[in-house]
């Protein structure tokens, strides 16, 4: 609850939460994950003074890598080789829940699919077309489900 002068707010009102600030994932192989998110998906890796001050020591020891999307969302990768991330089991039933989705301009969607194929990343599902847009699903090096999606063209 948030208290005001003469009222107590019991819910966050629409618009109070401005955006997703960051996502944090544990990874087993930092170099493979850095290549995937930076070298394949093209996210810009933060360096030097761009790295959040709370993560400087982990960054300097190679235990964290930070990437930023064009809209400013941060993706933090924490190196935890002893942890077992999700398993990209091809026999598992496909579900659209529990994944990281990146938006792309509709005219760039097919090119993104070709980049995924060029890097020989197995596509788990799709490309698919829905009333809300197009999507393709695949796994990062640690088994996290990733989607590239776009709105439908006009």
Task: Please give a structural write-up.
The chain has 154 residues and is an alpha+beta fold. The protein has two domains: 58 residues, 2,3-Dihydroxybiphenyl 1,2-Dioxygenase, domain 1 (Roll), CATH 3.10.180.10; 51 residues, 2,3-Dihydroxybiphenyl 1,2-Dioxygenase, domain 1 (Roll). It is 17% helix and 31% strand. The protein is built from three helices and ten strands. The strands form three sheets. The protein has a four-stranded mixed β-sheet. Strands 7-10-9-8 form a four-stranded mixed β-sheet, covered by helices on one side. The chain has a two-stranded antiparallel sheet with strand order 1-2. A hairpin with a 2-residue loop joins strand 8 and strand 9. The longest helix is centred in the N-terminal third of the chain and has 11 residues. The protein is globular. The model has no long low-confidence stretch (mean pLDDT 85).
Can you summarize the main beta sheet? 4 strands, mixed
| CATH class categorisation of the largest domain | Alpha Beta
In terms of DSSP E residues, the strand content is 25-35%
Summarize the amount of helix as a percent range: 10-25%
Number of domains: 2
Overall form: globular
CATH superfamily of the largest domain: 2,3-Dihydroxybiphenyl 1,2-Dioxygenase, domain 1
- Determine the mean pLDDT: 85
Q: pLDDT under 50 segments (min length 5)?
A: none
Number of strands: 10
| Alpha-carbon Rg, integer | 18 Å
Q: Name the CATH architecture of the largest domain.
A: Roll
Read across the widest sheet, the strand sequence of neighbours is 3-6-5-4
Distance between the termini: 43 Å
Quaternary organisation of the protein chains: single chain
């Amino acid at each position: 609850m948030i208290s005001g002068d003469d009222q107590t707010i019991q819910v966050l009102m629409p618009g109070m939460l401005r955006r997703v600030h960051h996502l944090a994932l544990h990874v087993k192989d930092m170099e493979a994950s850095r290549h995937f998110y930076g070298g394949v998906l093209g996210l810009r890796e933060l360096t030097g003074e761009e790295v959040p001050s709370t993560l400087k020591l982990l960054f300097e020891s190679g235990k964290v890598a930070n990437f930023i999307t064009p809209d400013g969302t941060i993706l933090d990768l924490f190196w935890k080789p002893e942890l077992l991330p999700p398993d990209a089991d091809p026999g598992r039933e496909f579900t659209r829940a529990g994944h990281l989705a990146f938006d792309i301009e509709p005219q760039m969607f097919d090119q993104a699919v070709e980049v995924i194929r060029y890097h020989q990343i197995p596509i788990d599902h799709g490309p698919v077309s829905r009333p809300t847009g197009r999507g393709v699903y695949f796994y990062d090096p640690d088994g996290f489900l990733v989607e590239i999606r776009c709105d439908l063209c006009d």
